[in-house]
Amino acid sequence: MINQYTTLTSTYQACRIINGGWQLSEGHALQGKLNFTDVLKAFHQLVDAGFNTFDCADIYTGVEELIGEFVKQRTQITGKDDIQVHTKFVPDLSVLNQIDYNYVERIITRSLKRLNKERLDLVQFHWWDYAIPGCIDIAGYLVRLQEKGLIANLGTTNFDTKHLQQLVNAGYPLVSNQTQYSLLDRRPEKSMVDFCLKNNVKLLCYGALAGGFLSERWLNQPAPKTLENRSLVKYRLIIDDAVGWQGYQLLLQLLKNIGDQRGCSLSNVAVLYILHKKAVASAIIGTRSERHIHSNQTLFSTDITKSDIQQLDDFLNHYSVPTGEPFELERQHGGKHRNIMKMNLNDE
Length: 348
Ligand SMILES: NC(=O)c1ccc[n+]([C@@H]2O[C@H](COP(=O)([O-])OP(=O)(O)OC[C@H]3O[C@@H](n4cnc5c(N)ncnc54)[C@H](OP(=O)(O)O)[C@@H]3O)[C@@H](O)[C@H]2O)c1
Description:
The protein is 40% helix and 16% strand. By secondary structure, it is an alpha/beta fold. It has one domain (11-339): TIM Barrel, CATH 3.20.20. The strands form two sheets. The chain has an eight-stranded parallel beta barrel, surrounded by five helices. It has a two-stranded antiparallel ribbon with strand order 1-2. Helix 3 packs across helix 4 (135-147) and helix 8 packs across helix 9. The relative contact order is 0.15. The mean pLDDT is 95. Residues 20-23, 55, 157-158, 178, 206-212, 215, 231, 265, 267, 284-286, 288, 291-292, 295-296 line the site of NADP nicotinamide-adenine-dinucleotide phosphate.
């Protein structure tokens, strides 16, 4: 059975299912369709159900503010702040070669203010382009802010193994790396998982449901001509790189068969699969309503077996793993994965 919490450090435990905030941002293309009163209501239900860790980013437009409003409400109701927030520090590509300590402090202080927090539970550092020098120095500025008490824990997001090693060698107290890791994207298994096990670094994984593609809604469906949000556009590329539409449909059917045997949904099987993988601490699941709370709670009362995982790995081994290290395709200039990303959202 999967535990509801995971130990990230000797002093910090987070949820194994983290509430993902990207789906609430303007960039996800749903703004206007979301009623934030309903979203805040869903947040209260999530926390009451034990899901009190939230993931967001300085570049998810409007989301730090929304979570900050929730932190305020929660504190008023319960008299204490029982919300953990993992945010990100994602400096714009256009300023990477100009960043100094003051810039980093300004963005971190802005996150604290937006989130109504005195200290950030986890800051996940992102660097768009390794060819631009400065990454290690800027990581050092985050360490200074941690020493000042503004940040409890430091992590990374979308780093590859080589650059994680460089950060660790430079003394960055790396707790976790947030990365895409799912049935469709097993790039972390090439070398990152071994690195994490050796260096006591945990993986916080996105993509476990491929933006919703790993759900019954898509079972027996033809390949869509248009997609309703940017996440689905992104994960459609990963489906094509990994198993293709036909292989994906076979995978959905296999997940459904396993789910039927274990008394849970095919989405639950997809998430349990990733939570059982080595070095994985948590799956971050996009949350924009109360719709999936009950289903995601099922993860803690049901389980899949070693032979289910083996069956899934045997199936996947007939197909490709996307090329390179995690986020390597996404960094490739002119590539289809990079072309759909926006890299200058912080100071807009
Ligand atoms: N560091 C990065 O670069 C990065 C990139 C992507 C994401 N993230 C983080 O990860 C979070 C999750 O994003 P993601 O891309 O990984 O999306 P995801 O969790 O794979 O997919 C989220 C979607 O799955 C559906 N869903 C959720 N629970 C379900 C359930 N029990 N059964 C069926 N469907 C379910 C919902 O779709 P409906 O709402 O349509 O029902 C939800 O919007 C983000 O919010 C963000 O915090 C980080």
